[in-house]
Each structure stands twice: as structure tokens, then as C-alpha cells.
Amino acid sequence: MSEITPETVAAHGLNQEEYDRVLNALGREPNLVELGIFSVMWSEHCSYKSSRFHLKKLPTKAPWVICGPGENAGVIDIGDGQAAIFKMESHNHPSYIEPYQGAATGVGGILRDVFTMGARPVANLNALRFGRPDHPKMKHLVQGVVSGIGGYGNCVGVPTVGGETNFHKAYDGNILVNAMTVGVADQDKIFYSAATGTGNPIVYVGSKTGRDGIHGATMASADFDEKSDEKRPTVQVGDPFTEKLLIEACLELMATDAIVAIQDMGAAGLTSSSVEMASKGEVGIRLDMNMVPCREEGMTPYEMMLSESQERMLMVLKPGKEKMAEDIFRKWELDFAIIGEVTDTGRMELTFNGETVCDIPLAPLADDAPEYDRPHVKTPKREALVDVPESTDIASDLTKLMGTPDLASRKWIWEQYDSQVGADTMQKSGGDAAVVRVHGTRKALAMSTDCTPRYCYADPYEGGKQAVAETYRNISAVGGRPLAVTNCLNFANPERPEIMGQFVGCLEGMSEACIELDYPIVSGNVSLYNESKATGGGSAILPTPAIGGVGLLEDHSKMATIAFKNEGDAILVIGGENNAHLGQSIFLRDLHGREEGPAPHVDLSVERKAGELVRKLIADGALSAVHDCADGGIAVAVAEMALAGKIGAQIGMPADQTSPAGFFFGEDQGRYVVSTNDALPVIEAVEGAGLTVVLLGQTGGDAIQISADEARSSVALATLRDASESFFRDWMEG
Amino acid sequence: MAFRSAVITFPGSNCDRDMAVALENVSGTAPIRVWHGDAALPDGLDFIALPGGFSYGDYLRSGAMAARSPIMQAVVEAAGRGVPVLGVCNGFQVLTEAQLLPGALMRNAGQTFICREVALIVENDSSIFTGGYRKGQTIRIPVAHHDGNYFASDDVLDRLEGEGQVAFRYAEKCNGSRRDIAGVLNEQGNVLGMMPHPERAVETIHNGTDGRALFENAIKGLVAA
């Protein structure tokens, strides 16, 4: 009698064509364990079946790239025999269902991806998208996600130093929680996942396996619906205390020469870790399911293989090292069990109570995995803006903008994160890039997560470029040399050609930017099916390819910050042209209710030149403050610099500009606002590089005073600060 | 003679390295790292630090399980002999749970974790830890905690204030602590527990260096003695 019915197959998220592939691979009908394994390995989440075709085209190489995509995280050379190891990953669906645990385990998972490779995690960042603040669920979601990220990161002792948060109604029913971890390792102590050596023991360490998170990967690969609350039991529960012990135990063992290969148990748990380790090493694997440490009695092999219990790792050890390794894990009060061995069969064999419960060839699991070149249509070009609104009172509009959800101070969020544990944090959230000293050196890592989804929605190609360019700019603005990026590609249902068109367009833009900026992609994650009917919206999220950039400061004493430092410094706008671009701007959307017009164009050769110039000026000590000019344009950049430095500014529109709103709130790309006590050499350097420079005004006083043609307006810093801090304060404490 | 200090690591401690780095930075000598399961402390210690973190994941109550670690018996004995003991953040929680200091640390009044630099007023400038400051001086040191809301009965608080055992007070709204207490000393003045992290305000890369004087004074006093 067959236990596999068409309903069983459908419940595992496989379509008929995919099930036929399973039958073909096995030459027989699978049992339930085998079907479960195929289903998770071929889920969108694990197999990247809709995206793989396009991901292959991304630029991933540079002389400083030690390991690109395909391992647990990307690895780059940061000099002196050291490496930075980093990745970003999504935990969107679980965070909507159970925000605290969803976000917490998202942090836990990405941390494991990084320390699995031998790195001590030194920084956490995140990229969050929420729906409308007045959506009935949103306050609860924001509170839960923020406390979940803090609850996990604070406890494991990794500082959360940066991130970004946006609000838009497109995320009402499907928020995005993307977490990034950056770690530092010695280049001769980097660990990979390929299992080798027939007979080598396979060891399970960490927490016990429970019944939580079964089918989490499958859930992450489908649209949301009204019943998503019923999926709460598929959300895993995190234990950051165990993770902290696991980090210390793994790093202690990694300091010896006992480990052949190591992989964390993330999505699809024991299944994906064991299959990936064996596949990468082109070996077989035999596991005795009776040896798996279980939290509950009576767990079946099916449950053990599909559980997504957290804080677990799988390792292949060198023979004879078992006792030494076990002593380390026992000291840290963690489970340690030899559960199997590497074989030369190329098959995955599982036994339970003496019986074989799974016997499948590994090659087809990887090689025959479905791959789709899904139909895609190009996003139509947006019409140029007509009836562009003007501003008659720049200071008043600036004050309003500083209080909008997307521009308001995020202090309420980042004060809930321990941003300083490690005592190496030099810049946390609130500036451009976060900066963390490489412990015990003069070097520092600069890191930033960025994406402007409204640009990606209006123009996926320009939006994809812009996301990469903005991280490049943020890292340059602190004086760091941008080295490489990770990404987290959040899109809606890829089976819809217009969504697939957004995906393809964004990837082309990202690719182009990474090539032009010499800034390869070394790791990443794709999250599809981010759309929900849960709130009656039936809506897709905005295309959100979040980019996490990492750069290096060779000498951290040269670091720049956004804060004005002195009264009487000149303020300049340098880099790209000031074309008064208001299409898709925050000004147009939040003050005039119009999400219209084309996204700003990103000139990559200007980005590169401007970045190189800014870094050189910072290294030469020529600038007293530097800030990327982004959301909200020049006026918002100046206001942020003034608030950070508690020093005001007098700024004016140059004579060749015609629109005050366009000049002060336009979102043209490739620009930096800088201050200096010696403007002339800076102006000469900018002009010498063939870039645009505008003398905007000077620092001083306790207000922002703005002149545009004959119009004068002014706002006190105290008023701006109150506007900026009132959004979260009133929302959360009101 | 070289300064001989120890930093205790409990499972879940996460500021142990930071404390060790700060002590080495100021004293020039690396502290001895001690595991919570050890039964004895190294001989001849001049200074013992209990670092911040989440010992045992804050399960049960912050600091409660760590206070019953084997090593804590030895720390209590050393404190009784007059060895200076500094507990920061989770270390403060452990010291109250071990009853080396009075009072308890409850969940922050606002219910959320708080990480920010705060202004502190120095209330005692005569202990080995606080002698490098002036009474009434305002210093800035970061806090990072979820359970820093200091509680003790009025009798106990009156006694602490009367005996000069309040070391630091918050100069701004922070976590709901009674009488804004941020750090307390024991009667003998050789045990200090404080929620703010002086080890995060020691080097020029930190936002400020107001924590440095605490370590400098302790080291100076001990080396001189």
C-alpha cells in the first residue's frame, strides 16, 4: 500500500512535474521521509529554482574575494592574513506570524552562517520594511521585530550597529526582516562545508532537535493567505544563550585541527545540512537517526529530518579527534553526538531502529533540482513628472519631512540594540556606514545596508543600481574602501511575469553597478512569494533587493562622521549633478501624496569617481564632516549633519537653480554633502576630478537658515530634533 | 609589582573580553581569565571583575544562576578578605544575587532594553574605584541592559545614602531605578556593582574615556599599597 497520495505530494509543495522528477531519480515511489527530503531540498527557499538561472549572471569575482556565493557566507581579504566573512538573509514570513521569535531566529541563523566558517561575528545589521504605521497590526510587528533582534543579538554579545527601516503600505501583509552578520577570521582558519574522507565521523552539536519549524522552508516558499496565523507552529523558537555557547565552543574547536567540514542547520535543518555537505564533497552519508539528540520522545525520522530547531551544527571530524571535541562541547554544556559517517556510496542512507528509512542517490537531489527560466516582462518606463509642486517655505517643509516615517530618527529602534559590546564600535546607527574596529588593529570595517524600494518599483534597473551605489557611497562617506556586497533579494510571486520582470531588472542593475564599481557580490539570499492576501490587500511587496556592503578603513583614526564639528566651516555638495530630480522623491510622496515619476538615474562612473575623491579627501584630512545625500535630498542631509553635531547652518540655493523644492529636496544620485574649514582646495580637487561642486553655505548657530532666491526661511535645531524624534516616540509611547 | 587581576567568565558572559582588554590597557598587564566552574581563584589577586553579559541567558532571574557557580564561593571569600571586586551590568546583578551587595535589579521601567550613553553623577569619591573622580562630578558612560532598575527598601536606601555607599547616580531618566541609583558599594567599600559599562569608555576610539579613571584609580591604589 502506498503512503504517498497526490494530496501528500501537494501538501509537500511539489507539483506533478516535480514529483515525476522524484520518481525518476529514485526509480521507485519515495516513502514519506524521502518525499519530505525532496520537498524541502527542492523548495524555492533551498533550491533557488526560480532565481538560480539569473543569479548565475552576477559578478562574484575580484582579487580580494576568497570565497564567493555557494558557501555559508562570502569571504574577502582584509589584509594582514585576516578575512571578513559576511552574509545577509531574510526571515520575512516567520516574522510576520510571530515577530519576536521570527526576527530573533533570523539573527541566530545568519550568525551561524558566519561563525560556521570560522569567523567571530563582530557586527550585526538589518534591513526592515514595515507597512503603514496606522495599520492595526503594525505597532505590534515593529515592537516584536525590534525586541526580537535585540533580544537575540544583545544576548549573544554581537553588537547591532546598523540598519535601515522603511514603511510602505505594500508591506502591510508581508513585512521584511533581513539580517546581516559580519565576522572576522584568520585566513588560515576558514572552514568549509564539503564533507570528505570515507569513514570520518559525522557529529551533531548544539541544541536538541524538537518538533518546531517543521516545513519552515516550504512555508517560506508560498504566498501568504488568511490562514497564515495557523502556521505559527512552523516558526522556530530561538535560544541566544545556547547560540553564545555554540559560538564559543565552535571557535574553541576551530582553533585546533579537528574539523574536516562544518555546516549549520538552518532552513530544512538536518536535511539540508547533511545533503549539502555530502553533495559538495561528492561523497555519501549514513546517519543513524536513533543517535540524534531529541527534545521530545517518540520523534520520527521524518520529524527529525525536517525540524528547524535552532542552534544546531553538523560537523565532519578527523578520526581520533572525537574525544577532544566532545570535551569542548561538554565544557560549554552542549549536546554532542556522533550520528553517522561519511561513505563512498554517493547516497544518503538513514536508519532508524535498525531499519533503513531513507536511501536516495544524492546527485539527483542537486543535479535534477528544478530550475525555471520563468516568463518575465519588463517594467514599463515611468512618464516624466508634470505639474511639479514647488515649495514656498523650505524650512517648514524640511521640518515636516524630518518627521515622516521614512526620515524620522530611528533612535527608538537602535537604543534597544547593544551597539557597543565588543568595545570596538566606532560608529553605530545614525550615521552613514557603521564602523567597527578590527580588534587589536588599526583597521576598521565599514558596513551599510541599503535599498530604496520605491525606486526599484518605478524602475527596477535603476533601483538595482541605486541600492548598490548607496552602500558604496555610505561606506565611502566614512572613509572606507568598498570591497564587496551581500544581498537579500525580496520579491513577490515569481510565477507572475511582471514580478519576475522586477527581479530580472533589479538583478541587471545590481550586476552593472557591481561591475562598474569593482564591488562583487560574495553571498546572498533570495526570498520570493512575498505577497499576502492576509490584510485584504492581495498585494505584492515593492521589489526590495537589499544590499549589504562591506568596506575597509586601513587606518581607523582617519574615519569621517556626519556631524558638523566647527562653526564657520564651508558646506559643499560634491559629486553628481544637481538636476532637481523629484520623481519618486520623499518630498513628492509624503508632502504631496504622489508616488510618481521616474526613479533618479544612477551614473556609475560619477559614483565611482565621487567615491574615490571623497575617500581621498577624508584620508587627507580635508573634510570635517561627510554625509551621503539620499532620501529627502540636500536639505535633509544638512539637517541630519546639524543635528548630529549640534551646530546649525546657513545654506542657499545657487543662482543657476530654478526650483527651490527641486534643489533642496531633489534626490539626484552620486552626491555627498561635506564640510571643510578650507574650501578652496576641496573645490579645486572636485573640479579637477571632473565632478560637480556647489558651495552651499556655512555651519554655525543653532538653526538651519535657508535662502532660495528672495525667500528666507529658518528652523531651530530644537524644532527639527523634536520633529525627528516625535514620530517613534508618539507612536510607541503615545 | 605587576597588577594581578582576574576576569570571571560565566556561560553567557559577553563583556569578559572587553573587561580584560580595558584592564590590560590601563594596567599594562593582562588579567587572568577564570572559568566559572573553577573551585578556586588564582592566588594573590589584587582585583576581581565580574563582567557584563547574559549569564545563563538571564534564565530564572538575571545573575541568579551565576551567583551559585562554584567560583562565586571563592569570590565571596576574597571580597570578605578585602580584595576589590567590580561587577558591571550582569556582574552587578550577580553581586546582588550573591548578596555581596544589597538590593535587586529589576526589569527596566520602560520594559525595553536600553543602550545609550548616560550622564552619571559621582556620589562617592573616596573608594578605591571612585577616588579618581570628584564628588558631584558628571561623567558620561554607556549603559546597555534590560534589567537595570535598582530596587531596595527605603530603610536600605537610607542606610546606603547615609554610609556613602551610593557610588553613582543617573543624571537623567534611565531605567526607573529607585533614587536614580546606578552603582552601589558594600559597607567596606571594596565591592562595587554598577549598571553602566566603564570598560566601554576607556580608549580614544570610544565615544568618551570617562570610565578610565575608575580603573586607573583602582590600579594606582593597589600598586601603591
From TrEMBL, chain A:
Pathway in which the depicted protein is active: Purine metabolism; IMP biosynthesis via de novo pathway; 5-amino-1-(5-phospho-D-ribosyl)imidazole from N(2)-formyl-N(1)-(5-phospho-D-ribosyl)glycinamide: step 1/2
BP-aspect Gene Ontology terms: 'de novo' IMP biosynthetic process
Annotated keywords: ATP-binding, Cytoplasm, Ligase, Magnesium, Metal-binding, Nucleotide-binding, Purine biosynthesis
Amino acids binding Mg(2+) 1: E89, N525
Binding site for ATP: Y48, K87, N487, G524
Broad class of the protein's primary localization: cytoplasm
One family name in Pfam for this protein: AIRS
InterPro entries for this protein: PRibForGlyAmidine_synth_PurL (IPR010074), PurL_linker (IPR041609), PurM-like_C_dom (IPR010918), PurM-like_C_sf (IPR036676), PurM-like_N (IPR016188), PurM-like_N_sf (IPR036921)
Stored Gene3D superfamilies: PurM-like C-terminal domain (3.90.650.10), PurM-like, N-terminal domain (3.30.1330.10)
Record's GO cellular component terms: cytoplasm
Transmembrane segments: none
Residues annotated as catalytic: H45, H91 (proton acceptor)
Domain PurM-like C-terminal, chain residue ranges per copy: 198-351, 567-702
Catalytic function, reaction form: N(2)-formyl-N(1)-(5-phospho-beta-D-ribosyl)glycinamide + L-glutamine + ATP + H2O = 2-formamido-N(1)-(5-O-phospho-beta-D-ribosyl)acetamidine + L-glutamate + ADP + phosphate + H(+)
Enzyme class per UniProt: ligase
Domain PurM-like N-terminal, first and last residues per copy: 70-185, 430-552
Binding site for Mg(2+) 2: D113, D264
Residues annotated to bind substrate: S90, H91, N92, H93, R112, Q236, E308, S309, Q310, S527
Protein function: Part of the phosphoribosylformylglycinamidine synthase complex involved in the purines biosynthetic pathway. Catalyzes the ATP-dependent conversion of formylglycinamide ribonucleotide (FGAR) and glutamine to yield formylglycinamidine ribonucleotide (FGAM) and glutamate. The FGAM synthase complex is composed of three subunits. PurQ produces an ammonia molecule by converting glutamine to glutamate. PurL transfers the ammonia molecule to FGAR to form FGAM in an ATP-dependent manner.
PANTHER family membership: PHOSPHORIBOSYLFORMYLGLYCINAMIDINE SYNTHASE SUBUNIT PURL
Family: Belongs to the FGAMS family.
Protein name: Phosphoribosylformylglycinamidine synthase subunit PurL
Chain's gene name: purL
Automatic annotation (TrEMBL), chain B:
Gene3D superfamilies the record matches: 3.40.50.880
PANTHER family tied to this protein: PHOSPHORIBOSYLFORMYLGLYCINAMIDINE SYNTHASE SUBUNIT PURQ
GN (gene name): purQ
SUPFAM superfamilies associated with the record: Class I glutamine amidotransferase-like
Cell location: Cytoplasm
Recorded catalytic activity of this chain's protein: N(2)-formyl-N(1)-(5-phospho-beta-D-ribosyl)glycinamide + L-glutamine + ATP + H2O = 2-formamido-N(1)-(5-O-phospho-beta-D-ribosyl)acetamidine + L-glutamate + ADP + phosphate + H(+); L-glutamine + H2O = L-glutamate + NH4(+)
Active site: C89 (nucleophile), H197, E199
Gene Ontology cellular-component terms listed: cytoplasm
Quaternary structure, from the entry: Part of the FGAM synthase complex composed of 1 PurL, 1 PurQ and 2 PurS subunits.
Biological process per Gene Ontology, one example term: 'de novo' IMP biosynthetic process
UniProt keyword annotation of Iron present: no
Source taxon at top rank: Bacteria
Keyword set includes Phosphoprotein: no
Key words of the record: ATP-binding, Cytoplasm, Glutamine amidotransferase, Hydrolase, Ligase, Nucleotide-binding, Purine biosynthesis
EC identifiers of the protein: 6.3.5.3, 3.5.1.2
Protein name: Phosphoribosylformylglycinamidine synthase subunit PurQ
Upper taxonomic lineage: Bacteria, Pseudomonadati, Pseudomonadota, Alphaproteobacteria, Sphingomonadales
Example of a GO MF term: ATP binding
Function: Part of the phosphoribosylformylglycinamidine synthase complex involved in the purines biosynthetic pathway. Catalyzes the ATP-dependent conversion of formylglycinamide ribonucleotide (FGAR) and glutamine to yield formylglycinamidine ribonucleotide (FGAM) and glutamate. The FGAM synthase complex is composed of three subunits. PurQ produces an ammonia molecule by converting glutamine to glutamate. PurL transfers the ammonia molecule to FGAR to form FGAM in an ATP-dependent manner.
Pathway, per record: Purine metabolism; IMP biosynthesis via de novo pathway; 5-amino-1-(5-phospho-D-ribosyl)imidazole from N(2)-formyl-N(1)-(5-phospho-D-ribosyl)glycinamide: step 1/2
InterPro entries: Class_I_gatase-like (IPR029062), PRibForGlyAmidine_synth_PurQ (IPR010075)
